Amino acid sequence: MKRLRVALSLALLSLIVGGACVKHIAPYEPKRRDYQLPTDEAERSAPPQDGSLWAAAQPVNYLFSDQRALLPNDVVTVRIREESSAFSDATTDLSSESDVRVGIDAMMGFLKALQQANPNLDRSHLVGASSQNNFLGKGATSRRGDVKAVVPAIVRKVLHNGALFVEGHRVILVNDEEYHFYISGVVRPIDIDGSNSVDSSKIADAQIEFTGRGTISEKQGPGWFARLLNWIWPF
Predict the structure, then answer these.
(1) Is residue 29 part of a domain?
(2) Torsion 158-160-161-167 (CA) sign
(3) Which residues constitute the domain of residue 226?
(4) Rounded to two decimals, what is the model's pTM?
(5) 8 vs 173, more confident
(6) Is residue 101 part of a domain?
(7) Pairing between strand 177-187 and 127-158?
(8) Are 170 and 180 in contact (CB under 8 A)?
(9) What is the signed CA dihedral for 203, 148, 181, 155, rounded to 10 degrees?
(10) How far apart, in whole angstroms, are the C-alpha atoms of residue 163 and residue 72?
(11) Is there a contact between 157 and 205 (Cβ–Cβ < 8 Å)?
């Protein structure tokens, strides 16, 4: 019996020590988005130029060309400035009322005998019923979001219409708390300014994500046992 207690104590101690040694943040897996246009047209691409030092597809080879992102693997800076606000209000008021009164003049002599026994009986109000139903419902919801960041993105694909599909990640680690910025979408080269930057409001089919992982994020939600009770509890 004593050996069993010692074995259980050692097993519990090893679990506690092992749990303390495990890093609480799982390895980060970068997100990749395979973007496809609704059409099936082939994308334009410059033909390879074997045996030549001149590459016509490189903007740096042109005297009057700027250094904005135009080709795959070029880098463009995305300024994320997203503000959203929504408000919804609904009110429902339902009311119904009914009143039914029925009088019986004759019933095979039974009412006459009943009225003789009870002179105060009023045959015009023998049956009566009334009902009333009221319902009042109100609902309101409000939501506001504000995200501002600067995320460099890479040109993943040049579409057949000349637009650029860009995708970018940014991971910041502060005191074992990870913050992840992700953005992807379609940019027109004309919307990229002279500093090789573009606003997120000019990105079509955009996906913008800002998430966090770590101790702070875990403490903002209920524990697993509380979530289990909420899932089981029917009321």
Answers:
(1) no
(2) negative
(3) 59-88+146-232
(4) 0.54
(5) 173
(6) yes
(7) unpaired
(8) yes
(9) 30
(10) 11
(11) no
Residue 199 to residue 204: CA distance in whole angstroms: 11
What are 25's two structure tokens? 């943040």
Domains in the chain, number: 2
- The sheet with strand 127-158 has its strands ordered as 197-199, 75-102, 127-158, 164-174, 177-187, 204-214
**pLDDT tens across 53-106, in order?**
655 555 555 555 667 778 888 999 999 888 777 888 888 888 888 776 665 665
DSSP letters for 152-184: EEEEEEE-TTS-EEEEEEEEEEETTEEEEEEEE
- In this structure, the answer to whether residues 120 and 201 fall within a common structural domain is no
What stretches of the chain adopt beta strand conformation (E)? 75-102, 127-158, 164-174, 177-187, 197-199, 204-214
149 neighbors 82 (Cβ within 8 angstroms): no
Residues 114, 204: one domain? no
**Do 124 and 99 share a domain, yes or no?**
yes
